[in-house]
Amino acid sequence: MPNIKSAKKRVKVIATKTLRNKSYNSALKTAVKKADLAIEAGAADKTEAVRAAIKKIDQATAKGILHKNTAARKKSALARKLNASA
């Protein structure tokens, strides 16, 4: 356990940020899974699902949760799957 006042505050701040990041990450994973399932099932709204997933990826990147290259890779993979199913 930290003894210094600033170190104690850092522990609290890190805990708060960790929870927030987990929330964003969870929402991102859910959107990507929904898009994957829509593509595999050939759903009528698969384009919308992919668009929503890409938006979540961009938001996570803007907040610093994903690295920009990771985001580009994920978006590219979704686009490839969507175009292959068309």
UniProtKB/TrEMBL annotation:
Gene Ontology terms, MF aspect: small ribosomal subunit rRNA binding; structural constituent of ribosome
InterPro entries (UniProt xref): Ribosomal_bS20, Ribosomal_bS20_sf
Gene Ontology BP terms: translation
GO cellular component: cytosol; small ribosomal subunit
Record's keyword terms, sorted: Ribonucleoprotein, Ribosomal protein, RNA-binding, rRNA-binding
UniProt family annotation: Belongs to the bacterial ribosomal protein bS20 family.
NCBIfam families: S20 (TIGR00029)
Role of this protein: Binds directly to 16S ribosomal RNA.
Name of this protein: Small ribosomal subunit protein bS20
Gene: rpsT
